[in-house]
Amino acid sequence: MTDKSENSSLISAIEPGMTVLDIVSTYSATQEVFKRWDDRAGECICCNALLSPLKRLPKNTTWI
Questions:
Q1: Is 47 helix (H, G, I), strand (E, B) or coil?
Q2: pLDDT of 20-54, one tens digit each?
Q3: Helices (H), the chain
Q4: Residue 28 to residues 6, 22, 25, 42, 61: CA-CA distances in angstroms?
Q5: What residues contact 50, with CB distance under 8 A and at least 6 apart?
Q6: What is the largest CA-CA distance in the chain?
Q7: How many CB atoms lie within 10 A of CB 10?
Q8: What is the pTM of this model?
Q9: Which of 61, 5, 58, 63 is closest to 31 using CA atoms?
């Protein structure tokens, strides 16, 4: 799989409607970013919110 983060001509913006899976499969480096937020979220974001769009992740938590 090609990581678009390694080829700047293919990079597009991360949009609120993209799922966590869309983001980490397109930009592999973002998996580490999500992992850094797991403690604040109180759960593994990539495990429990993989199919959730960013705009639907809980907004009432301190990790967003």
A1: helix
A2: 999 999 999 999 999 998 888 888 999 999 999 99
A3: 20-26, 30-41, 45-48
A4: 9, 10, 6, 22, 25
A5: 19, 20, 21
A6: 36
A7: 11
A8: 0.70
A9: 5
